[in-house]
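Hi,

I'm pasting everything inline rather than attaching a file, because the server keeps stripping attachments. The sequence lines come first, and each chain or strand is labelled.
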Amino acid sequence: MSPSNRAYWFAGGASGEFRVRRMTAVIGEPLSEVARVTYLDTPTLPVGLEMRWAFRGVTSNQRYTTKNEKEALVARSPALGRPWAALILIKKSDAWWNLAQDERREIFEEQSRHTTIGMRYLPAIARRLHHCRDLGTEQPFDFLTWFEYQPDDEPAFEELVAALRASAEWRYVEREIDVRLVRD
Amino acid sequence: MSPSNRAYWFAGGASGEFRVRRMTAVIGEPLSEVARVTYLDTPTLPVGLEMRWAFRGVTSNQRYTTKNEKEALVARSPALGRPWAALILIKKSDAWWNLAQDERREIFEEQSRHTTIGMRYLPAIARRLHHCRDLGTEQPFDFLTWFEYQPDDEPAFEELVAALRASAEWRYVEREIDVRLVRD
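And the predicted assembly:
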């Protein structure tokens, strides 16, 4: 991987370093069931990879966090490499994307406490956000969010996703797939 | 074009509906001189197009405008189709992208009056912004901004770009190419 690479792929199929523990369509249409998932830090997908689906995304600048929030997040955010993982694929509605920046920030943080909730579970729940919306071709999801944690922290992770799913921001989520994984 | 298409290409070469009046490297390395520019509303570039360069970008949600600013912009923004045009290609520094959202907004609007300045020249100077930074492969520019106006409004356009280039935001611009065009 180039040091400046920000592009990643998630491919689901018969092989890959992560075994699927379960897949849930939380909102909207399900995604084909797969046995394993590959997480690749390359802008292109290798030829010959056997898979049922593949989604790509790029890490990018943060869109809503303030300087103080960003500094607190960076200070508490651990490196990746933990044994359990979750891939949460999300599509938001046109109504969300048509809001102005201050309206989205208001819903995201002042109403929904998105960063505040995530911060509560740091450093236990590591997180990396991949954006898909501006890749240049139509994508089924807007975000691919990757989480990693120790098996003992799965109850904490359930709390985290439950809090977000109950938030005002989630009224704008049209599709959400939750894939739970283990590195093996 | 699909009604939901947000992807566009600009290709410079010997052919294209826009004739180049002049090209200027305002900041940083110049771009190869071309005679004409094509502006395509398709996610892929046609095969066999003769060109020296091609850049793509996507229109997206606004990143800094508030609800009030957005409503004022929408109310005053005209359709495209005017005879003169400018394509301004911009790359911002890592220092810009590493700032938090509130810091970028502060520089963009409270210090630099980016939206306020643009609004002053509406509806005379039409504008469409294309984003390149999150396309998934490394891009030479972060933004491709397209402007259209009547020939008589070129002095107003010069004022607009001069005001932005003198702003605090422009300290974060690493490369800027200004291509002036006429539809013929």
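DSSP finds five helices and eight strands in chain A.

If the labels don't parse on your end, tell me and I'll reformat.
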